[in-house]
Amino acid sequence: MSDVSAPVTLPPLALYVHMPWCVRKCPYCDFNSHAVSAGDDSLPEAGYMAALLADLDQDLADFPGTAAREIVSIFIGGGTPSLISPDGYATLFAGLRQRLRLAPDIEITLEANPGTVEQGLFKGYHEVGINRLSIGVQTFQSEQLKALGRIHSGDEATRAADSARAAGFTTFNLDLMHGLPGQSVEQALDDLRRAIALKPTHLSWYQLTLEPNTVFYRQQPVLPEEDVLADIQEAGQALLAAEGFGQYEVSAYARPGHRCRHNLNYWQFGDYLGIGAGAHGKLSALTADGLSIVRTAKTRTPRDYLAAAQAAATGTSAAFRASAQGIAVDELPFEFMLNTLRLIEGVPSGLWHERTGLADAVVAATMQDLRARGLLLPEGERLAATELGQRYLNRVIETFLPA
Description:
Distance between the termini: 23 Å
Strand order of the largest sheet: 9-10-8-7-6-5-4-1-11
Radius of gyration: 21 Å
Strand content: 15-25%
Number of domains: 2
Helix content: 25-40%
CATH architecture of the largest domain: Alpha-Beta Barrel
Shape: globular
Oligomer: single chain
């Protein structure tokens, strides 16, 4: 697989910024989001921007050398980041540039809702340096939008894509779900056709799942039967391929040259700082023994997060970080494969040693067994699941769990 004598280097570094507010909590959503009225004057925009920078300062102080590493991408997720004004992001970016080395061609993505309130802000977002939008359409069907608790219409979703192009965005993603309550194969394909007609450069197309701690988990809707779900997946993938969208990850499809750099960094087991309420991060450091990898998590509620900022401003202890946990050696195979095997093309074989510092022997027996069962490609230049392996990907990844 790889040469264990090859030097171990630090992976690319990205930045994730979490905006925890949304207009309404959707019944399927298990992200860290908290409802607030659109245009609500009580949304503490200025205070939260200051808190984000104080949070970053603490990370940079606690992880020496991080400030010197180049940031290859920024992803602003939520919640609904488009509730924050362009001026708010201008303030944030000015602070980031003072503290970090941003790549000259950095990709900066903002998640946005298709509601008319946010669309008028697209031009302002583009002017302050955001160069990629991810628009949460989910579906164009009125009844299914209602069932999902979404506050926009199909027509508003269409106008949002038009507004993105008019604002100067040459690359944007549309987020779509399938396997919705009562959805037929034709309805799922109609969503895809309507999305493709809007000429996005990227599509995220994934099946609705019932996650714990959500309304849908407690009050489960009736979802399509397994054979219908399989037909939707097969027909949808064929349509996307025919329309020039290459699948490069389980639920990611892109025009040539428009793969999401930020998510690719996740899936290639890269590093990322995570700032904001509930944000997660992964940071590597070179040690005498190879690599030390730490996962971080920030305090979840906006109230506690803002209180940490107030404490920091007065010179007292600021508890932005809820946890910082090193990844144990026996957990690294699962952590690495959980990300990299999501990629349809896989990763270069040498990436295992490069990103973990471990020898091939650590995973050799498991990989030999998976190859013998036709679930991984034969040993060579790339580590990837076969078509059969992709079909049973969760089971493949689970074989790397610690005993």
